[in-house]
Amino acid sequence: MKALLFATTSLLLLAASGTAQTPAPGSFAASRAPGLWINREVNQYQPMELQAAAVDIKVRGHLATTTVELTFYNPNSRVMEGEFVFPLDEGQTVSGYALEVEGKMRQAVIVEKQRGRAIFEEIVRRGIDPGLAELTRGNVFRTRVYPIFAEKTKRVSVTFEQELKADGDTFRYALPMFIPGKLKTYRTHVEVVRAPGVPFTRGNACEPLEFKRQRNNQSQVAEFTKVGVEMWRPLEFHVPKRDDRTQIFLVEDKAKPSQQYFHARVEPPIPLDAPPPVFTPKRVAIFYDASGSAARRLRARELEMLDAWLKRLGTVKVDLVIFRNEAEKPIAYDIKDGETAAVREAMESAALDGGTSLGAVDIRVVPEADAVVLMSDGFSTFSADEPVVTRPDGSAPPLFAIHAAKQADAANLQRLARKTGGQVLNLMRLEVDAAVASMRIPPVRLLQWQVISGKVDEVAIPRQELEDGALVIAGKVQGRSVVELSLGRTSDAAVKHRLTLEPEEALDPASGAFVRRAWAQCRLAELSVDAKRHESGITALGKEHRIVTPGTSLIVLERIEDYARHRLEPVEPDLRAKYLAFLKSHPYYGRERDMTVSTGYVVHQWQEFKTWHEKRHPWLESVIKGAAEHEAALYEALAAGSAQGLPGPMLKAEDAVAAAALAHRAGVLAEQWQEASKEDDSRAAWLQDAAKVLRAVRALRQQRMNLAGPGGVSAAGGGFGFGGGGGFGRGVGIGGSNGFAGSLGDMNGVFTGTMTVNGSLAMDSSMPVEAPASRAATGARDKNVEAEGLEVKPWEPDTPYLTRLRKSDEPVQEYLSLRNEYATSPAFFTDCAGYFFTEKKDATLALRVLSNLAELDLENATLLRTLAFHLKQHGRHDLAALVYEEVLRIRGEEPQSRRDLALCLAQLQKPDFSRAVRLLWEVVTRPWDQRFYGIQLTALHELNDLVQHIPKEQMPDLKALGVDETLLTPVPVALRVVLSWDTDNVDVNFWVIDPAGEVCFVGVTRTNTGGCMSARMSRGYGPEVFTIRRPLPGKYTVLVACQGNYQQKASLPPTVQLEFQSGFNEVGSVKRELITRRLEKMYDAMEVGTFSVKVEDLAAE
């Protein structure tokens, strides 16, 4: 596994002109400040160093394009990997990304997000390292930086575009730059094109810039290069506005020369003849987001603004609703003479904890309110429910969305505000006084627009309200055209303003490409207000204009063959020429994909699976004697060794005598089977005796293993296992800390006669493959044998915070205190949630604690899967389904995303059978990457079980869903164990040990008694599945261990979930029990639990 190292550099690269935000200490925001990150778990290496920085800025009127190039140096003696994270401000979009490849900067290609990730994963697994950059929720741009070779440098650059904020008679550009430590070089180049005056800087707090005219007096340029300096002052300067306060850019449409794109910023004169109306609500509903992510907001600034507004109102009724994953009951306040202390204290003292459900915002709980204030960043991390912003009668009070968050879902907040005629007040961009004034006096807004002459199409207006006194409008125009804008606070006081578009002033496509992208930015902002509805349009627009959107990514590949294989045309002309030449000589290259293909192949697998489970396999009558004799032999050898003082487990002679007596009894029973099996009564009595003997053999084995202790195998045969004749079985050794001795490295023991070299018991190859022709060996489930239930192995995470919780008289307050210390630890929240669930029986608090996982890192599939595991564990399939919906959205290229969601939908209180069937059928029939080999078979077995248990009146139209009903042939199994885990590129395996000691795992996939293990999923997620149609009576023990981590970065311990099922694919309900565990140690086998199978009429012992 390659190592990962993130630089400790706290590089603040955020082109924002608002107030800087300081994250709360210990918060996730503080631990994930912008830059190249270090993983604190990997502290044995030196942090990477930022060696050089180059900033290139180009300003045209109110539009700016910025490219930041950073050079990182790896001082370590091995290859390192980093993740470059670049938070974007509201209104910024990424239009370029490049990585250093073979000493040159290579521009990225735009691609659909899911396709980009699939290409990335496929190439990485071939040992070649592409670069992938994505936009995640919160407008955060992130990319992997790899490889950074030992004692070498690596360059990465990102280009973003934005509209500049007005500052009086100027536009203000600000780029905060703060990097601890010295840079070898720091270069800056700023070009302002066709400014009406000379740009300038103010004060000594920013980097001084001296502008000079260049390029035929068309541009003002400032540049400098510094050596051995620290970066701490921002790049900030002001550009004078035009006198007419109107800025229009046009550019010729390359695809349609008769058409031009235009982008305009207009500051229309608004007469102030009549005093504007003042909004003075009498009752205000405040919905205050106190989720865990609230710690990342500047809450003091938010409360300052709210306090100032309420004071201006003077006397007002306030209903405060604090919400997180759920809403608390409203608290009513009567504010008189602007006394707001009680309301403010309630918000300040609210515990910041849990996920966010905007569905908890419901105006119906306070229908009398005539104004609604929503204080939130707009992210709904723990619910898909929509806020209810209308009263029962259909009316809606205006909603004011207020936030001071560096990362916010601006489009979502804008959508809610527009729906009610309200506003979004971003306090990172607005001063408090301006925000209060905006709430009191309705803003001037665009009331309507019309084309007076000419032809104008595809108009995009990102904001209806004027911001800084200006309106932005963009579109496409043919010929000289005039657009009339009607603006005002009300239709009674509208002001007309005309905008004239002159095609003769259009820029050529090369120099005016920024105009086309600016139009696309406006169109994207408009569509993003209803992103779900316009998802495909947003993605298409991003691809066309090379802008990163939630549905697109940027990818850099190393080899021309990879560009050709995936039909991605490079940006650079020389690379594009090589790409086209390669395709010309290899026209079919890449058409064959390394996928598991065709339904026919699945049919073949399914037939083999059916044949195995329908086959007669040796059962109790065939294994009891060998298992007992083997254990007796081991006891005799160990007792003899103890008598001679040899190292190993200490056994007494009487122990060996007892084991020998048990072996004798087993031999007698084996001889009696032929006669006993002829009659029902004698057969039932025989089964009772045999089951008791098998339990006794297991007890001897367990005693021996416990004496051996963890960590080693005794010379006398401390391992255990049951190999198979006919080429199926191999000896197994298992090691761990749960009383099982052995080594996970010894998974492939070699047979020596009927015994493996590590002392494990193997079936004699001379044993018959089929048992005698009687009801005991028909291959059907025996009516006398049934699954009894699951016995969970106690598991107690050894963590200091759980110790403190248990000792505390106030565990809730103790948890909140600990939360500050462990705010970025997923294990902390899962363990504490388990504590409140099981020990304190407080399901409501436990759910809130668990929901924090949704807040830790947006669009982190591993954390989301962990969250879903625990939600299912506690019976909240409704919430788990919502989490799996998000996983499917961000990891749609992985079949597990569909399977997990399908199985969850089928277990809802109101199951969605139709979608569950469709999703499982997609897993069965779609081509998947080779690393997911075998998942189609698992999904087909689950599809059969699902269809068999759907009520007739709810059965979907299988033909309409495309399901091949010839594959709907149930394969019933008495016992099924399913292993899944949360982390990609991690190899987790499990072992099922039957009552006779035979082990089934990925190295021994078939057992003598009919056990079957599915294909190994060594590259992430699972599922791996054990099935047996006719289990032995007694206990089946399940162990699990992490055996490999192929991630190219350090990762948290994987969380696994095992589901024990009985009666699978049979008529009647399937019994299911879940166990969720965290695997703390590599290669350490953890016993998860035992599943008991009993003889139905067995006498009580």
Automatic annotation (TrEMBL):
This is Vault protein inter-alpha-trypsin-like protein. Residues 1-20 form the signal peptide. It holds the Pfam family VIT. The keyword Repressor does not apply. It comes from the Bacteria. InterPro entries: TPR-like_helical_dom_sf, VIT, vWFA_dom_sf. Residues 34-162 form the VIT domain. PANTHER family: VON WILLEBRAND FACTOR A DOMAIN-CONTAINING PROTEIN 5A (PTHR45737:SF6). SUPFAM superfamilies: TPR-like (SSF48452).
